[in-house]
Amino acid sequence: MISFLRYKIVYLLISLAVIGTGLYFAGLHGYRFSIEFVGGTLLDYQISSPISKADLMLLAQENDIKLNDVLTVDKKVSLRATPITDQQEKSFREAIVKKTGKPVKVSRYETVGPVVGRETLKKTAWAIMLAMVGILCYMTYAFKRWTHGLAAICAMLHDIVVVLGLYAVFGYIWGAEVDLLFVTALLTTLSFSVHDTIVVFDKIREYQRTTKGTLEELADRALTQTMVRSINNSLTIILMLIPLSLFGGELIRFFLHDASCWDHIRNIFVTICGNSFVCPF
User: Fold this and answer.
1) Nearest Cα to 223, choosing from 272, 150, 269?
2) Is the CATH number of domain 4-35+116-277 3.30.499.10?
3) Average pLDDT of 34-52?
4) Packing angle of the helix pair 146-174, 8-29 (nearest 10 deg)
5) Does the domain spanning 40-112 belong to CATH 3.30.70.260?
6) What is the model's pLDDT at position 117?
7) What's the Rg (C-alpha) of the chain?
8) What is the mean pLDDT of residues 32-57?
């Protein structure tokens, strides 16, 4: 049996360091929200001849387009702008062709209105709150004590705060955006959090019925018994994500580009730590 709770102060300090760093970046630099949440137009162009960021900004200004973000990587240009019309996009693309003297291929062209973006953000918040209420009710019913549900919510909040904090860091360093894929990763965190919590709590309840010992000893035994299962479960998902990242199509590559896929992987390990070292307290 591994004595996990002997080092609970160490786990607490690690969690506080990670959460503190994330909150610092979130408060100082904020998050980069995708057009699904704030509205706007996303353009991806494949160009045959390089063009500078200054030239793109100038061409956009001439076509009454306000660019919020410009990213050029090799022969790919990614642009974020306020909502534009099809005619504006066509004129802008033709201006780039005229400037470079080479053809330009549209890889992506999406426009989301600000009303739709606000509605998406509202639905996301409701989804997370409903998930938390459902988890609280289920845990209270399954274990006949509301304190179990409250402990599960605390562990889940720990996982969410860690993920949100780390994503703020990734957004500042690598430009990762908060989009619908990130929401999927966040809801996945809720699922893994409560899933592992139920397993650990059920083991503790089983040992309370059959084995004598303090709550700390029973928690250590439950964590030891369930740790291998949690790691194997996580590795199964990671092994599924690796071939998707290597052989997936353009959508999967963009999924990796904004770090959402690795966010799923990070969520798995954060959930293991959160449920293993937070719930027993």
Assistant:
1) 272
2) no
3) 84
4) 50
5) yes
6) 65
7) 23
8) 85
